[in-house]
Design a protein that fits this description.
3 copies of one chain form a homotrimer.
Chain A lengths: L4 H6 L2 H23 L4 H22 L10 H20 L7 H25 L3 H22 L10 H19 L4 H22 L15
Chain lengths: ~220, ~220, ~220
Amino acid sequence: MSQDALGLLFGDPFAVMNTIGLTAFALVGASKAIREEFDLLGLIIVGLAMAFAGGATRDLLVTRTPLALQSPIEISLGLLGVGLAIALSIVLESPETHPVTLVADAIGLAAFATTGAIVATEAGVSAFGIVAIATINAVGGGAVADILLDRPPFILFEDFYASCAVLGGAAYWVVGLLGVSAGTAAVVCALVTVGTRLVAVVFDWSLPTVQTLGLRSD
Amino acid sequence: MSQDALGLLFGDPFAVMNTIGLTAFALVGASKAIREEFDLLGLIIVGLAMAFAGGATRDLLVTRTPLALQSPIEISLGLLGVGLAIALSIVLESPETHPVTLVADAIGLAAFATTGAIVATEAGVSAFGIVAIATINAVGGGAVADILLDRPPFILFEDFYASCAVLGGAAYWVVGLLGVSAGTAAVVCALVTVGTRLVAVVFDWSLPTVQTLGLRSD
Amino acid sequence: MSQDALGLLFGDPFAVMNTIGLTAFALVGASKAIREEFDLLGLIIVGLAMAFAGGATRDLLVTRTPLALQSPIEISLGLLGVGLAIALSIVLESPETHPVTLVADAIGLAAFATTGAIVATEAGVSAFGIVAIATINAVGGGAVADILLDRPPFILFEDFYASCAVLGGAAYWVVGLLGVSAGTAAVVCALVTVGTRLVAVVFDWSLPTVQTLGLRSD
């Protein structure tokens, strides 16, 4: 991809999106753990797991040691998000379901769909590989957090959650074909993901099931 | 392994077994998700997870990027299996427990035990490594599908399920020692796995527990 | 790290700790599965999963094929632990909660925190990476065993379990900075981990939650 104005303005799209995603998802994961009355180590683990699990899976899929284990910056951002969650839990009644947390989750989802698409493109996988790694990077943290919290992974029950990352990853691939800069592709991917997610939350969108499509009755 | 008649007839054993396994397991995984009334994206995810999780784990264990993210053929076969599951759900009453699905599951188990044994042998792991990777390739998809469906992994409760893949992987290793072709070893592995699995289903075989062996009473 | 008396006495710290950890964790995992009346294959799988899952995750994080798939010694030690669990289940009333099993679990935890710290240090990750890989190596097996047993991972509910491995990994890193031998660092890591774990069990230590700290009331 060539450089353009938006690309230059945006600097290193991976670093920007990674910073946003780590902080937002650590906040959301720790908020879930606080709700379940986990102890301090437990909420740090759930917060860091939510922040790091998607990216670590992404890194393993392109066979490299996870960045979270190599860079002191990643752990600092994760702990910042956990600290924000503890602060929020003091000032808010039920932070896990507060709009602040829902928006942070949508922003983290979009940021990590974008980092996934960037790393996958650099690794030279197929178009499906780009969409799959973008989606895994985006939803992996939430799935692992839910497993640690002993809940069924809500990414399968929230109709427009993983779907938003799928659309964002596909958008990244499509605009990449058009020859835009990596910065522009990152912005498009993030906006498509966070936009569809927030609209879906506000309007309570859901996908059809085989049953509601009227194809069969149970 | 040298080439022989069966080996030549069979062409590329990995490609044949991989094609069968991906289609069969995507069908079985999507059928389980339809039974649980998952939405369309959810059943695609469960179907693809069941088709890809075992092979992706196998690829990570031999430290390479999963084939499913590199080859457009893999995703096409997975979606074909999901499509077959939707078609079956329209014509059958309870497809998840129908003999068609049980047989598809046994065939997928055998096909993936074989691909696992082939990849492990090429990677030069130990005899235990061959059996372990064959088994993980065979049962990994079902285990991940059950976790996504929030069920206890049935591979631990079906007595002759993982056992069949263990026997198939061991058979692959033993006939490999005898110097047969890769094609012959693949056929032996697949037949041992699918044969023991179908006989176990028909005769309702079960393994002893420490309790039923009379070693202790609880 | 330079060689000193303790380092020479201890030989290969990784091999010593790995042998102890594999046997102890296979014993604990198989004991849990016997308690749940799993069949023989099931308890072998849970025992081996508990013995191997942490180390396999560690190896994947530093991008190498898990040792358990390459070395026949690892599988032998795992099966030895499973055999010990079956023997214990015959002579003891409830082996899963017997002091023998609790001590074996603490020893396995300490041994695997140490192998994790050794491998991470050799791989050249950050200080957080050393602590994280030590902790994952130590608690990964128990977490996977609990998931296979369809229990919530107890590592999140036992307050001083993962914490002990965190402390051990941190101790390994700190004494490493002081320039001691790998053998001495391994002994320090193992003693810190097993010591804090056993003291925590005896005195029933627990960490504070956000609620018990009085920061908020639910």
